[in-house]
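TEACHING EXERCISE
Course module: macromolecular assemblies
Task: Read the component lines below, then compare them to the predicted structure of the full complex.
Student: A.B.
Group: 4
Components provided:
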Amino acid sequence: MTDAAIAVPAGDAPASGALQAHAAQRRRQLLTGAVVLALLAAVPLLVGDAYLRNILILTLMYAALAQAWNILGGYCGQISLGHALYFGAGAYTTSVLFVNFGVLPWFGMVAGAVLAAVLALLLGWLCFRLKGHYFAIATLVIAEIGLLLVHNWDYVGAAMGIQWPLGPDSWATLQFARDKAPYFYFVLGLFALTWLITFWVEGSRWGYWWRAVKDNPEASESLGVTVFRSKMAAAALSASLTAIAGGFYAAFVAYIDPDSVMHFRFSLLMVLPVVLGGIGTLWGPLLGAVILIPLTEAIRSYMGGSGTGTDLIVYGALVMGVAVLKPEGLIGLFGGLRRKAGAA
Amino acid sequence: MNAQAIAQVLASGVLMGLMYALIAVGLSLIFGLMDVVNFAHGEFLMMGMYLTFGLAVGLHLDPLIGMPLVGAVLFMAGVLVYLLIVRHAMRAKANVGMVQIFSTFGLGTLMQGLAQYFFTPDYRQISNSWLANKTVEIGGVFLPQPQIAGAVVSLLAFGGLYLLMSRTDFGRALEATREDQGAVALVGIDRNRVFALGWGLGLAMVGVAGAMLANFYYIHPQVGGAFSGIAYVVVALGGFGSVFGALVGGVVVGLIEAMTTLVLPASLKTVGVYALYLLVVLLRPSGLFGRL
Amino acid sequence: MNAANDARQAVTPATEAPILQLTDIWQRFGGLVANAEVTFDVPRGQILGLIGPNGAGKSTLFGIIAGARAPVQGRVVFEGRDVTRLDAPARCALGIARTYQVPRSFDSMSVLDNVMVGSFTRHARAAAAREAALEVLEFTGIIGRAAAPAGDLTPPEKRRLEVARALATEPRLLLLDEVMTGLTPSEARKGVELIRRIRDRGITVIMVEHVMEIVMPLVDRAIVLNLGRVLSQGAPRDVVRDPAVVAAYLGDRHRAA
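Instructor-supplied answer key:
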């Protein structure tokens, strides 16, 4: 499923043929999206087990996070290894506003998104002058700074974190003690949002300019692309979506501390599904998350937990394998199948 | 806080700084040579430490004796990593930058997992080495011998590197490849060989650092992460690709870290180092001696 | 400055303002002087050839006009507006576009998408940008490759893509950097045809070229650079007979031998 491949017959295909083919492809993608969404929505009706539902909720959350990361890293080509900073910003903002001021998580998430966007713009202003791996390193270091600061900041609970007060089940406070299905639908909605945004981006000027920046910043400048501004826009969008997921996570687990939402582990888990599934593709993040998260859980349950390091062994081998052997990600396998079937 | 206490802190800062320099120089070397950042650098430090530990516990080899062995093993590891992984990663046609980042990144994660699997997350320590718990006193300042040994080895290593780079054929080939990757083939320099040996040399450095570090630091699977952050700052400060920059950067970082402990609680000692990093990025992205 | 004014008056028709005016351009890299006292005007609607031996400073000057690097001294005036300090995207918005000597295509995107990056500069909405891009692809003759990944193109096709992308930004001044180098005679003929059609659309073209046999019949005017300075300028047949120009090229050939 190549992003913008158009089925124009070789030779002298008229321009209108290309236009029609493109519109058809976009319609197909949207239809596929709707179908996938409908299938996912049906899942809680089929799966009742609380443990499995938990895994599904986390899978979709990571799919949304991966999709958000993909905007900056996959499309715009700026590899951030410190996205946990924004996740934590969202989680903490939502928690502090709810626990200290009674602000409903719905609004808290928006506030978190704004804060994350501001952080991303600051970080971008400082670091987008750095190229490639320097930028990646900078994001790593800055995320560490954030973790360190939060660890020592008493107002947000320092190392003890923030505990959400127990309360009755309610959509307003996003607290559901027993039946977790509402969380599933919320996070499904969040994933749908990130997917739609990605879909829209792919067809918009931003998407084209981001990909140009990724491939060749200097050439894109000569074509009128304002590289710095483009990167900033991608960063702000990616960060705010990540923060919303962070706010969701805080409401879901009802207790956060620095290590549970800002640790490098989260930055890793946001990036791995994308690398695995396909960087810079529409469906890569979901594919990667669907493979990786249940796998993580399986490892944790059946191979003695994360203390044994088996999860890291699997991640590491997968990422290395994909990076070296199939850089375009596993989604590339599907693209091949579709081409053979004569589609797109 | 009297002068002696301050001198104590600064002296340990310099000693630790020299260790940081040795840990970081491999990173700088590899980067300067082929424009690749080794995101598994911390894990190779960890590997060096565990190897030293193994030699100490299994063969009763003191870290000082084990160090050259560890260096040699890490050298071979570096060559293998280049030949088997990095070389393929560099051939990628699309998403080149990402492939380079994630191939070493994945390797590092894998190594961490393996360490955790085989050695458990427990913290380990070499408790009965020759230098353990011994100190030297100079003018009222007490310096632990393992750290002094580490600093001395670091200086020797930098000296050796300098000689290697400036006096030997290999060193000149290294320098030439750094200057112009494409052209060196024309003068008969085998790029692949230089790259492989460069990786070997870079990892040997970090292996030696790991051996000396194991003398006085806890050994555990996540130790790489703690030091790699500092290594990145050292290299960013000194300049990617500059060996001398790594030395200067390391000492500066060590001093800054030590000075930070004079004003902030110990848990925040890295804040000073990170603030320094941000300043470098803001004011001089290419570092003191590097070329961006 | 008087010499500069004289140079300008010598070639600009009194009627219309030139589209581009370079005044006293100097460029230095460290101790090396790449361009010195470069002054000339480009009348609107012409095809101007920028020629000269190796190392004459053509590409550097190109970069200065395109906005890749600001000169250490001098002014670049485009359509009456001082653009010397403007960066490349700003100049593109004003109507200056360029190609690169070694094509820099966006390899992760299709040919059509590559061109759309350019047309998006003029059309904010994707549908309009796509139509404009398709039109440019037809104009440059590579519409048949619209769906192909840019990386799959043959070198001559890549050159056309470079031109197509730049044209998609609807420039009034197009800078072509050695687009003819290395083409077979029949490819070169098609290239000349394309450049004529570009000029017929009202776009002023400045081409840096080495291949004299192709360039001289094509251009309306030629400017010869040597050692960073303007050596000669005028109609092609006058320039090639200028003894100073001949000496510069012969000298270059002698040096190369």
